[in-house]
Amino acid sequence: MAFEFVQGVHLHRTDENIDEIDALAERLGGRVGLEGVLHDLNRQAHRSFFAFGRAVHRAYRWDRSDCRSERWWPQGITTSADASDTEDFDGRRLLVTTWYAKETEGVNKGSRISIVDLETMRYRHVLLVVPTLGDDGEMKLAPLKVHAGGIVWAGPYLHIAATSKGFMTCRVDDILRVPDERGVPDRLALGAAEDKVASFGYRYVLPVRFSYRAHSDEGLERLRYSFMSLDRSTRPPELVVGEYGRGKQTTRLARYPIDAESMHLVLGDDGYSRPLTLEDGGVVQMQGVAVTGGTYYATASNGPVFPGNVYVGGPGRFHKHRWATPIGCEDLSYWPSRQELWSVTEHPRRRWIFSMKKKWFDKRP
Q1: 198-218: buried (b, 16+ CB within 10 Å) or exposed (e) per residue?
Q2: Is 263 helix (H, G, I), strand (E, B) or coil?
Q3: Cα separations (Å) of 275 from 223, 304, 316?
Q4: 115-120 — which CB contacts under 8 Å span 24+ positions?
Q5: Is residue 163 assigned to a domain?
Q6: Contact (Cβ atoms closer than 8 angstroms) between residue 36 and residue 114
């Protein structure tokens, strides 16, 4: 299939961190993958009837410690409906969310994901890490310090928004379990020394496998990858990305084709991935966008006091649905068979996972 790409901005996919991940896996006794986490979910979310938002269909609250945490802030959301045409993983319907950490006790723990089983609302956190090997073979571990404002589960990969850097990619099969005999109990330590691995106290870690680095032509502002979603209504599917912007900042939206077989971004003849479209005309304080059938649905926050808005339409032609979401709405993901839009909110004590019926917006002008 021939594509007509937009010039000016592009992404470069880095080499895969195969040796680094293999070395970390060997130290920890091998990969356990997503299946390992699903057999060991240790937290419980609950149905909530207090998530105010005119379009809210169903809402859930994290457990008490996650609702109140001042260190960790929810941002991105994706689902097993993004991962495959069957909309499940091994027969289970799942949500995956991202959180970024604020520095607390002098430590920034980077970012993490939460894997949620929609049937039971049991979930578990998995820490995102960046392993490296020195010339002497010494292993080091660093936290993935990105805002993680969006996430997309495409086939075996999780793409995690990294703002001006582009986005980082992990593979769900690379999830590793830190056994007691190899772990370090210090919850403020991260690293690898001798045969031990310190993981801020997390039982499971997921290393970054590669990244898509953002670039732009001279004189053009680099695209900020603030959030992202997957449009499966196109063939091939397309990665939709956009910018959070305030004041004079740009609020651009772009779409990249995905190779349906490899689930990598399509490459041009020059080895770079370029968008099919790059358009101005987003809305101020966009936090997430989902697209289906050519229609865009965008969340926009109103700070820590007022409910959020949802805008429907497309670049330059959005219609506002006021107070559609709870306070602090973030990223957005579309579940095709359920015709639902899913999102999360970020502020302490006002944190929900929630869904909205697409028809609620389609029935309103």
Answers
A1: bbbbbbbbbbbbbbbbbeeee
A2: coil
A3: 11, 34, 18
A4: 115/34, 115/37, 115/38, 115/41, 116/45, 116/353, 117/38, 117/41, 117/92, 117/93, 118/92, 118/93, 118/94, 119/92, 119/93, 120/41
A5: yes
A6: no
Give the pLDDT confidence of 223-280 residue by residue, as tens digits.
Answer: 999 999 999 999 999 999 999 999 999 999 999 999 999 999 999 989 999 999 999 9
Regarding beta strands 352-357 and 46-48, do their DSSP bridges make them parallel or antiparallel, or are they unpaired? unpaired
Report residue 22 as tokens. Answer: 């293999």
Residue 90 lies in a domain: yes
140: domain range? Answer: 9-362
In a domain, 3, yes or no: no
Domain total in the chain: 1
- Phi then psi for residue 89, to 5 deg, are -125, 110
Backbone angles phi, psi at 340, to 5 degrees: -125, 145
- CA 20 to CA 176: how far, in whole Å? 13
236 preceded by cis ω (within 30°)?
yes
Q: How far is CA 135 from CA 20, 132, 196, 210, 239, in A?
A: 12, 10, 20, 20, 36
Q: Domain containing 24 — which CATH number? A: 2.120.10
- Which tokens hold the place of 256? 């990249």
Amino acid identity at 86: T
What is this structure's pTM?
0.97
Task: Identify whether 2 is part of a domain.
Answer: no
Q: Are strands 151-154 and 157-161 parallel, antiparallel or unpaired?
A: antiparallel
Residues comprising the chain, all counted: 365
Q: Residue 239: which residues within 8 A CB-CB, separation 6 or more?
A: 152, 154, 159, 228, 229, 230, 231, 255, 256, 257, 258, 265
| Structure confidence by residue, pLDDT tens digits, 194-231 | 889 999 999 999 999 999 999 999 888 999 999 999 99
| Phi and psi at residue 110, to the nearest 5° | 85, -115
